[in-house]
Amino acid sequence: MVASILPLRLEAVELRKRGKHILGPLSLELGATGCTILLGPNGSGKTSLLRLMHGLERVRRGQLQWAAPLEEARRKQAFVFQTPIVMRRSIVDCIAYPLLLDGQSRSAARAEAADMAARVGLHGDLARPAFVLSGGEKQKMALARALVRAPELLFLDEPSANLDGRSTREIEAILQSLKADGTRIVMSTHNVGQARRLADDVLFLNEGKIVEAGDAATFFDNPTTPEAQAHLNGDLIP
Amino acid sequence: MTLKSLLLSVVASLAALSAQADTMKMAVTTSFANSGLADVILPEIEIDTGIEVQLLIVGTGQALKLGEQGDVDAVLVHSRAAEEAFVEGGYGTHRREIMYNDFVIIGPSSDPAASGAADEAIGALAAIAGAEADFVSRGDDSGTHKMELRLWDAAGVDLAGDWYKAVGQGMGAALNTASGMNAYILSDRASWLNFGNKGDLAIVFEGDPVLFNQYAYLPVNPELHAHVRNDLAQKLENWLTSDRAAELINGYAIAGQQLFVFNAQPE
Amino acid sequence: MNDLWAGLAEALRLVLRLDPDLVEITIRSLQVTLTATAIAALIGLPLGAWLSVNRFRFRRVVIALLNALMGLPPVVVGLIVYILLSRAGPFGVLGLLFTPTAMIIAQVIIITPIVASIAHQAIRDLWSEYHDLLISLHTTRAQRIKALLWDSRRALLTAALAGFGRAIGEVGAIMIVGGNIDHATRVLTTAIALETGKGNFALALGLGFVLIALAIAVNLALHMLTRTERSSQW
Question: C137 and A75 in contact by Cβ < 8 A?
Answer without folding.
Answer: no
